[in-house]
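Run log, item B.
One chain of 418 residues. Sequence copied directly from the ordering sheet:
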Amino acid sequence: MHYRQWEVVQVRRGSGYDCDVLVVGGGIVGLSTAYAITRAAPGTRVTVLEKESGPARHQTGRNSGVIHSGIYYKPGSLKARYAVRGAAEMVKFCAEYGIAHAVTGKLIVATDREELPRLHALVQRGRENSIPVRELGPAQVTEYEPEVRSVAAIHVGTTGVCDFVGVARLLAEASGAEIRYGAEVVQVDRRPTLGVAVRTRDGAVVRGRVLVNCAGLYCDEVARLTGDEPGMRIVPFRGEYFSLARPELVRGLVYPVPDPAFPFLGVHLTRGIDGGVHIGPNAVPALAREGYGWGTVRVRELGGVLAWPGVWRMAGRHWRYGAGELRRSVSKEAFARAVRRLVPAVTRDDLVPAAAGVRAQAVLRDGTLVDDFMIREGERAVHVLNAPSPAATASLPIGREVARRALAVLGGVQPGVG
């Protein structure tokens, strides 16, 4: 059926709706939004469309599993406010529902004196964000992590780890929403007097009064299907991980001092809830939105990224940083050298390949890497356009904010036409 023919069919079907709010995306942000809507407005009918066969198959389930404290983020930003609040809420949520978690604290380690000004800036930022931070000298660092080399460090006590996939599953169950798996959105028809009709790849049509776009790696494409120009494009960055063959070398979480020019935290070591230690990620351009390896290339998606002017402007500014990340991607020894800056005892033989993740990074037309969460509204629609890390940590407050906006849009729909 051609698109125009399909639109006519939607008009003729009348005013019946399958739901009040139609959420696209079954990651932790989409499911948190569904959960928040049904709690804020009981009786609101919510349907979640997820293209995979289960929840949290991409960004939510392919990260370090860290509950971030919020120390890195600009005071007053959505990331700072939601991460600080979300970290406390996530720990409470996991405890209440019996989801595996631990509050471990973490070290952010300076390995040479040139990094000290940035480390001190993080201390100040932590204080501005009301995060408890302890400054450490080298001897104190070894009390926490005997194998870590440093000139100084800070200890952040509110950082932890948890099972974010378990959180997402619980949110799906507790929301009371209808969750449709295997439902990939391919067309959207939005009419002021007829609501939003979505067709999935299997030919099913779902109609709602309001659409919420939490599609992660495809959020910009869903926004454009809806008829809204998001003013950004998702550029996928693959984060590659290794497991540490000798996990006894690391007791907890060890991070480098990040470069404030980039929204990436650098290669770090994370002891997860399973007791294993993950190392990574780096950040290299992916050749597909779900390009978890160099062998995954999707020409249409890659062409869409390369056609965005912001990509070339970003590359022109940051090619030196990118070259270093690419070197670590193709050379295990280069990756090991980055790790040895923090833990000198680690060898390349200690690095066991693990599953990669892909970060959905929004890039503006001028080449700016969007550093904060980005939520925009359109007619009968709310779009979450940038929600990479720490979105899993902040998912409960993000979900409430998106739910608030969706319910406001829903409340503004005129009786008789919505």
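Observations after the first pass:
- Residues 1-14, 414-418 have pLDDT under 50 and may be disordered.
- The two ends are 26 Å apart (CA to CA).
Flagged for discussion on Thursday.
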